Amino acid sequence: MSLTFPSLGTQQTFQVSEAGYTGTLSLDDGGSCAGVAVYSPSSGPGPSLIVTVTSIADGSCTITASDSYGQTAPETITVNFR
Prior knowledge:
Layout: E1 2-5, E2 11-17, E3 24-28, E4 37-40, E5 43-45, E6 48-55, E7 59-66, E8 72-79
Parallel strand pairs: 1-8
Antiparallel strand pairs: 2-6, 3-5, 3-7, 4-6, 7-8
């Protein structure tokens, strides 16, 4: 799954979910979203977490969700404003 933003300053959401999981879901972009997009929250309780992403400049980045067992799922963010 990926999010594509047509303009700056717009928001979209995505959901991270893991059936039956009640631990903490964590998000990390490894610095790749700096200057491209901001998101919150950066973590929250499972089994599901709604993440809001705001576009701030052209570019792309990847936000990776993980659980305490090391399972991961990436979300690609692309901002195309021209």
